[in-house]
Amino acid sequence: METIYKPLVVNTINDLADKDFTNSAPLVEGFLPSEGAFLFCGSSKIGKSWLALYLALRVSTGEKFWDLDVKKTSVLYLCLEDGERRLQDRLFSIASEYPDNFYYSTEATTIDTTLIPQLEDQMKEHPDIGLIIIDTLVAIRCKSATPNGNVFYDDYRIIKTLQEFALKHNNTVLLIHHVRKTKSSDPFEDISGSNGLHAASDGAFVMRRENAEVKLYTRHRDMAEHVYTIDFNKAECIWHLIDDGTPAEEEFKTDPDLRKVIEYMNEHDEYYGLAQEFCDMLGLKKKAQSISGKLMNRKYQLEKMGILFEKNKTRAGSVITLLRINNDIPVEADDESEEEQIEDLPYEILDVEEAEPVTMCDEVTTLSGVENVTNRCDEPGA
User: What is the pTM of this model?
Assistant: First the structure.
């Protein structure tokens, strides 16, 4: 019998380099992307659940998380280790309003049974859910190990299944998880379980106490690492950001070509013309195709730094626009000024195709908690 299979879909690298991908704005600027499966880890009772609930509330209302911009979206919170009474007590402690687009459940099945169908049902009923928080990963783990006893494979499969679900629905799944009791030099090696969990995830957050401070470490596939110093306010039952040790501009400082682009824009209000001419003018090492692609994929970060970037494809090559803006004010395209700029260009590049708008995710981060929280926060949680 002939084996039926799905043939490979093969393209050239040159085709890939020429693609412009549309990326969604992050759920939380510099903290949480809008797509993928992420681990949020810390020791028992450090305050992970307090942070997760606060994050969920901010995303559901669109209010700033710390001083970071938030993309408002519906939230599904699976509170699987605490009952309704404890969840309500925490809600009363930290919330000033109770949004209708914040859904919760205190029961769910496991990943190896019907958890995914349960989540699919919720997406049908509430298709605008952009964030799903599962508290905790242990509660939805497979009850039986893989037949061959391969723990790495079992852990990898759990996260991969949730990642595929998140990519299918263009949302984010955040999994609350624990760390080992012994600390290693690399905080991400503290994650409980095999390396399969971190390997399959799109990123991880690790909270841990270091001397008198709580540090939040973040590591993601498409973002620079961050280390945040955070503090738990016992009166408010809220984690506050004390110090962000890795500003959003860090990636542009470490990449020589991107750094030259920023240096140029610090001295000029705009550039409009061929990408190749721009690269030649600045003496950039990489090809124009690579530079314009890098800038397109970091469009969101550039806007946060006060620089508007656009790219259009023409017969003569890519035409790019770099424009210094006031990033506190939404920027809309000025058709008249753009036409005036086009008139100044050589006739060969007047055939401009519309480029798809691209928004780039920013970086990500997480918070941490304090043990033995008192006052209204008698039980910090997982």
Answer: 0.69
